[in-house]
Structures are given as C-alpha cells and as structure tokens.
Amino acid sequence: MKRIVILGAGESGVGTATLAKKQNFEVFVSDFGTIHDRYKSVLDEAEIQWEEKGHTEELVLNADVVVKSPGIPDHAPIVKRIIAKGIKVISEIEFAYHFNSELSIAITGSNGKTTTTMLTYKLLKEGGLDVGLAGNIGDSYAGQVANHPDKSYVLELSSFQLDGIEEFRPNIAVLTNLSPDHLDRYNYKYSNYIDSKFRITMNQTAEDYFIYDYDDKEIQQWLKNHSIKAKALPFSLYSKLDEGAYVEEENIIVTMDKETIVLPIEELGVEGLHNVKNAMAATTIAHLKKIRKEKIRESLSDFQGVEHRLEKVLKVDNVQYINDSKATNINATFFALESMKTPAVWIVGGVDKGNDYNELMALVREKVKSIVCLGVDNTKIRESYENVVDSFVEVQSMKEAVRVAKSLAESGDTVLLSPACASFDLFKNYEDRGHQFKEEVHNL
Description:
Elements: E1 3-7, H1 11-22, E2 26-30, H2 37-45, E3 49-51, H3 57-60, E4 65-68, H4 77-84, E5 88-90, H5 92-97, E6 105-108, H6 113-126, E7 131-135, H7 141-147, E8 152-156, H8 159-163, E9 172-175, H9 190-198, E10 209-213, H10 217-225, E11 231-236, E12 244-248, E13 251-256, E14 259-264, H11 273-288, H12 293-301, E15 311-316, E16 319-323, H13 330-338, E17 344-348, H14 361-367, E18 368-374, H15 379-385, E19 391-395, H16 398-408, E20 414-417, H17 430-442
C-alpha cells in the first residue's frame, strides 16, 4: 500500500484525502494552520489520520508521494525537506486525473478564467452533457472524482495548480490571456509565470485542442518559440480567422470543420469586450462538444456572469454601483474601466503585486473623475494618478470608501470597485472585500 501525505486540509486537500482513501492509499493529512471543523468531521468519518498547527516531520517525510495545496509555496521549509528527500510532490489535479476515466476541459489565464469556466459548464450542462465543475471553483476535483470517476469535468486551473502536474492531459485546454500576476511566486520573472500557464497544454496530443486569445502578444510570442501538439483554435476581437472564433459586424463567428455559428453580440447576457472573448472561448468548446446552435444561443443570452466580476449591485440616487472585487490585477481592471459608459468614481487599492499603473493611464484620463484609494499603502497609486483626476481620497475601510464615493458621485455616474490589487491588507480575500462593498452600498 502506498503512503500519501497531503499538505493543507482545505477543500482541495480533504477532497484528495477522500479519493486516496477510496483508492486504498495509506493517507495522512497535515496542516500548518488550524483545520476547519467541517473538514475535521469529513476526515474523521473516513477514518483518515490528520494533524494541525504544524507538520510532524517523521510522519510527513516517510511518504511515497506528497500532494500539496496550491497555496503552499515551494520555498516553504517542509516542502524543501520533502524535495531534498526525493519524494514526489504533485497537485490535487495531477493525483485525481489518474482516477478520472474521461478527459477534462481545463481553463486557465490571468483573467476571465472563472467566467469562461462557468459559461462553458452552463453551455455543456444545458446542452445535455453530464459534466462536473471543479478546480478553483466549488467542490474539489479529487472529491468529485471519488464519487463520479467517469464524468468529464470543466476545470478552472491556476498557475499554482498547473505547477504540480506531470501527466495531466485535458482534451480541451483554454488560455484566456496573460498579464503579470503572482510574480512573487515566480522569482519576479514574468517568463516563469507564462511557462507555468502553458503547462496546461504540455501533455496534449494531436487529438486534443488548445483554444487561446489570438490578440494576446505574450501568447503569440510564446507560441512562436515553442511547439504544441494540440490543434490550435484561436479567438480574436480584431482579426478574421480561417478557423476559430472572431467578431464581424457585431456578431461572434465560430468556424471550424467547414461549419459556422453566428451569434449576435447584443444577445449576450453579460456586457464588455472581455465577456465577448469569454463567450468566444466557451462557444468554441460547446461547438467541439457538438452542442446545438440554438441551445448555445439560449444559454449565452441568459448567463448572468460571476459574483464580484463587474456585478451591478444597486442604483442609488441614479448612481450605478458596480462590484468588480475579483479584479486583483491591472489587466482585469483595464477591462472594467474600458466598459464604463459614464463618468466613474473608481475605488482602487490593496496589496500591490508589482503593478505598472501607467498601463491604465489613458483609460483613467478618459473615464475616471475621482479616485477613492482603499489600502494600507497607497503610495504607488497616489504617485500615478493624484494629479490626473479631479479628486483623490485615501481611506482605510470599505464603509468609508463607499461613503466618500457617494459624496463624489453625481447623478448619472458610476461607482466602480475594481481594486487591481490583492485584498489581504484589509480583507480576508476578494470575496470578503466584494461582500463588504455590497453591504455598504445597501446601507446607503
């Protein structure tokens, strides 16, 4: 019997433990922090050994294989010791893949991956396919494979999850776009992060598909310098393509295998150019999976988008409040600002991940009248924009941010929370930040 040690007892770790136990592994779960009571009871019920608040080395370093949570960096002391001992370290995605009889659809990218994943799942599910939804969303992939090993899954994957794969091979892989993100985990080298994202296609064969943003310069550059085996299907807002998806006269055109689908952009249930791209990627997948055109159109038109991603919260005194808390990098905020149709009061700030604020300068000049800066350290944002907008106010709480934004907004304006930064200085995570924003807007 093989011994598997799982580091981290969150959704991913506990799902892996459940699957490993079902596959007759000797399982041990070790968490450096405290384990949530809900997960403790799952582990106890399955008679899986666990520990919290630290790692007991003799119980960890005797593993045949270690599955680590994507949140644990490679430079963590325990991980360094595991690697030094020559023990294989993989991700939940890699482990579960070997027990999943159907090849999956895997979606990654700096932005848009959640929306594209949700939309793809909706198109396939409503089109009559028996598919699961996992990865960065909802219940863990491993936990679902434990109960439904013969399903095909739509997986949203982060670069951290892809770092831990060896043989994982999706039938359809999607790379929505690239922009600098999480560089603190990649020695501050953008090229390392890009290579990490492209791991999604490394095991694909000529029978598989790789769908990507043709307009993305970094993706194009990487593909020039590397070869992939999968059939490439690009999507573009600006170029007409022989095969793939593109925009022509306010329609999305998807063309492949001498078949064409035409979808009017105005029928999409979500707004913004970035959502046109997400829809192109999802529609390409649905077409590959033989979903009927009518069904695709119907599902696209009633898709309401994802919470915390350009989510319309409320109109107060004819001012629209929009929650885009999921925008944790410059690229995501770029699309948010680009989609603004009225003067914007922009709430921005948080933990800076190496942002270049000049990339937003033209949009800020064009769209933003006032900035409310919400973060512990706002120096970079202040230096970039203080002299570009009518008013620039720094605050330390969401309540204050929303109140100040209300005082700066006039009838017909938009208040946009699109932080371009991580949330960990003042909030638990971007969801907490988004929920607090919505709560304060409802309190106005």
